[in-house]
Design goal:
Blueprint lengths: L5 H17 L11 H9 L4 H14 L4 H17 L27
Helix pairs in contact: 1-3, 1-4
């Protein structure tokens, strides 16, 4: 893996994801090609991260490629340097998370 081209490759994937979402492609499970998923996994990222960025970009105009890259650089750094390139065995169970309409201290 070439560490110096992460930003450029991520930006290309971000732009592709935004275009795919705009064209009507839905669902993180089939949102990326096998090569794209391999790149994401090697850098501690997931197709779901990319899908969420594309959805928010198309629906709200945010976060934008630069902000997404900044977030993913932090995530990637932690993955490579703290987790030693190994994915966490702990995964949040979405079914146990509060729904988007639940409120905490009056905030949804």
């Amino acid at each position: 893996m070439k560490h110096y081209d992460f930003a450029q490759k991520f930006r290309l994937l971000y732009d592709k994801a935004v275009a795919r979402f705009a064209a009507g492609k839905r669902g993180a499970d089939e949102f990326c090609t096998a090569d794209e998923i391999a790149f994401l996994v090697a850098n501690g990222l997931t197709a779901q991260h990319l899908y969420d960025y594309a959805e928010d970009h198309n629906n709200y105009g945010e976060p934008g490629a630069d902000n997404a890259l900044a977030i993913e650089c932090v995530r990637r750094d932690y993955f490579l340097n703290v987790q030693n390139g190994k994915a966490s065995s702990t995964v949040l169970n979405v079914e146990k998370m509060p729904s988007k309409t639940d409120a905490v201290r009056g905030i949804e």
